[in-house]
Amino acid sequence: MKLKQSGGVASGSMWSIVDNLAQQILSFVIFAVLARFLAPDAFGLLTVAHLFILFTRLVVFDAIAMPIVRSKEPTDRLYSWVFTCCTLAGLLLAGLMFFSAGLVSVLFRAPDLKSVLQGMSVSVVFYGLVRAYEARLVRNMMFRQLAVRSILSVSIGGAVGIVLATKGWGGMALVVQQVTASALALVLVVVQTRWLPRCVLDSALTRRYWDDIRQVGLTGVLGFANTNGDSLLVGLFLGPYATGLYNLAKRVTSSVYLVIASSMHKVALPVFSNAGTDLAALRQGYLKILGITFFCAAPLLCFQAVLAKPLVTAVFGAKWLPAAPAIGALAILYLLSSVTQLNDYLFFAMGKNRVPVLVGIAQLILATALASSFYHFGLLGMSLSFCGAFLLVFPVSQIILNRSLGLNVRMMWYALAPPLVGSIILFLGLGTYLLLIPQDFNDGVLIGGGVLIACLLYPFIVAIIGWKIRAVNSSWHEMLLAALRIRRSIVR
To answer: Does the reported pTM lie above 0.90?
Structure first.
């Protein structure tokens, strides 16, 4: 049975953004509510368990599903083969996770981790069962169904977790929340596709797609290490409590990256593709997207870094205050990440596929070495280690890209001066504001005052710097207008 495509590229892109944005907002709200009832240790244990699930999804399930993406016209037999392979892999990995839970809990020096891992192993089975269905919906451009599935499963799973947390279930409330959400996601996607797979084990298909599966799996390992290796290292060196605090700091700062930078990266793909081998067009598109990304993301990350303490206290509660210093370090990290990810897209567009891989490996090795040396300084030391690895590797990537595009310092300055100078002055202005306000001031009023200062100061500085640069390079004026339109659409 072949599904009818439910929409075009424009509709699919819109629903994909809605899906991503809704998941981020709902997850953040549910996390903020649960943080009021549960201790950081509970979230730390779940974070460690979730790392194992993310690994299976990125490295195993996504790799097995790759033939559907590569095939011009996937058949029901191919979908069933993917379903069978993912299901068998899911059962095997779930069993491995369940029976190795005791050993892993010893490795992380966290006895309570055993029951969390065993409970979360059920989700691995659900993720294996659902992967072929998800690939079928994506292949047929049915992004609206995926968005509805995500919103309902995350909302209901979150509601279940909140109810159990209020009844004193502790960390197991988070486990039940995750298992409920993954089970409901499977049920909804089966209903939406109206497709029942068969058991298909085909060695010819395995041999045909093995190279693609292996390549995607290896890429998934590197992607997992660069994206989640920091949480894994914090868990190994500092334990569940610090992991829970780091998870909060990472959620707060990554929200800006996921909403703004990821949206701009989706815009970058067609821009770079349309430019082809035209270096002038690639250069102009890159500078515009880079300027808009900085314009939108930099002030928000500065605001989070300076007002981390009142923000954490007001939203999550005073027990999470030890996470505030890490937010400042991670704000720098995610600002650099937004640029690095954009650079990677451009490298791939230019056929320089090895550069992002080599840079990612170097960054991973450096981050691990720094974290191993500075974990004695606690969570802040670990956060600064990850930030330091980015700061040391980032110039290498940027220099290679600038040479490939023919970019010079003046061009980069024209693109980044208004948001960069505006963010620095905003940082200093908010810091001065905090010094002048009494320490016992109400957190909500303090945050409100900071928002007012940011809304007045940042656009004023950007307008002044941008106006001066416009006299030399009028393209930044176009960038500013485009950025304002994007920010208004995000707010709506």
So the answer is: no
Q: What is the pLDDT of residue 6?
A: 45
Confidence of residue 40 (pLDDT cuts 50, 70, 90): very high
What the block records as the tokens of 218 is 């290896």
SS (H, E, C) the chain: CCCCCCCCHHHHHHHHHHHHHHHHHHHHHHHHHHHHHCCHHHHHHHHHHHHHHHHHHHHHHHHHHHHHHHCCCCCHHHHHHHHHHHHHHHHHHHHHHHHCHHHHHHHCCCCCHHHHHHHHHHHHHHHHHHHHHHHHHHHCCCHHHHHHHHHHHHHHHHHHHHHHHHCCCCHHHHHHHHHHHHHHHHHHHHHHHCCCCCCCCCHHHHHHHHHHHHHHHHHHHHHHHHHHHHHHHHHHHHHHHHHHHHHHHHHHHHHHHHHHHHHHHHHHHHHHHHHCCCHHHHHHHHHHHHHHHHHHHHHHHHHHHHCHHHHHHHHCCHHHHHHHHHHHHHHHHHHHHHHHHHHHHHHHHCCCCHHHHHHHHHHHHHHHHHHHHHHHHHHHHHHHHHHHHHHHHHHHHHHHHHHHHCCCHHHHHHHHHHHHHHHHHHHHHHHHHHHHCCCCCCHHHHHHHHHHHHHHHHHHHHHHHHHHHHCCCCHHHHHHHHHHHHHHHHHC
- Measured CA to CA in angstroms, residue 115 lies from 42, 144, 313, 389 at distances of 12, 36, 30, 34
The answer to whether 181 and 153 are in contact (CB under 8 A) is yes
List CB contacts of 404: < 8 A, sequence separation 6 or more. Answer: 347, 350, 352
Predicted confidence (pLDDT) per residue in 340-393, tens digit: 888 887 887 777 878 888 888 898 899 999 999 999 999 999 999 999 998 999
Query: How many C-alpha atoms does 241 have within 13 Å on its Cβ side?
Result: 6
Q: Are 335 and 303 in contact, with CB atoms under 8 Å apart? A: no
**Cα separations (Å) of 347 from 3, 267, 396, 402?**
35, 16, 13, 11
Per-residue pLDDT band for 469 (boundaries 50, 70, 90) equals low
- Phi, psi at 161, each rounded to 5°: -60, -40
Residue closest to 189 by CA, chosen among 141, 226, 135: 135
d(CA 373, CA 382): 9
What six digits make up the tokens of 129? Answer: 């069962």
